Prior knowledge:
- 44% of the residues lie in helices and 13% in strands.
- By secondary structure, it is of the alpha/beta class.
- The chain has one domain (2-141, 159-297): Ribokinase (UDP-N-acetylmuramoyl-L-alanine:D-glutamate ligase), CATH 3.40.1190.20.
- Helix 5 (103-115) crosses helix 6 and helix 10 crosses helix 11.
- It starts with a strand and ends with a helix.
- Residues 140-154 have low confidence and may be disordered.
Amino acid sequence: MCLITEKTVHTLIKPRGRELHKGSFGKVLIIAGSKGMTGAAILAARGALRSGAGLVRMALPEELYPIAQVAVPEATCVPRKFNEEDLNGYNAVVMGPGLGTGEESAALVDRVLRLYRGKLVLDADALTIVARQGLPGDGAAANSDAAPESGLPNAGPAGRPQLILTPHPGEAARLLSCSTKEIQQDRPGAVKAMAQKYHAVAVLKGAGTLVTTPEGQTYTNTTGNPGMATGGSGDVLSGITGSLAAQGLSAEEAAVAAVYVHGLAGDIMAGVMGEYGLTAGDLPEGAALALRQITKVQLDQSSF
């Protein structure tokens, strides 16, 4: 088991060249939000933008557009009626925060899983839906022994997206059909079981967040604090993960870097306002400051 440290992330987050443009930094689609849960989509979008995504689009119900566009003017809103070509025009997709778990949402999750071939972050309600109905294909699609597509690090079985799952312990329990207590009693075993069952990079959130690949490589995060145990924190993490994946990191690299940046964001902001007053809305700004710290070290090192 490897510790995720600042040195780990230094090698993944590269300084930006002056000749690059917004298209160089990836396009992220965030499929999130529902009536009463617009904030989840907003937090994910802010997380993606503050961690460097070049373009962010939110696919949410049209009646929520005015709220979302005022809250995140840098992002655009798009309808949820996309085809295979539309979906695969994105470098990464984030799906689940505040999505809801009804029939319409379940059909949407199934459609995206069938059509998308890139890096797909599943969080929150999308995980609940997958736990309930499985992955597309045969009922045990997640257990397929099909070989990954060549050239795609951490790719799922051929013809499927490269999955990154970001459950909290309760969601992990649903994915593995066990109790939350069992998850917490053996967190390393649980995250490995999820990664293998769903052929995904699995992130098990909590104190000492764990990241595991389908091959069994496991990482433990070293950043974060109790102030981050607040509603919406995971939505921000999903946005950061999608953003880093869209910028060219593999599914494994994006998950590893994202949990570190997310935790460091919480540490930075807790240093300003303390742990008691920390909210999820503080974390996107913290992510920007965390990345500045990480890339500044990179620049300083490269000058020698």
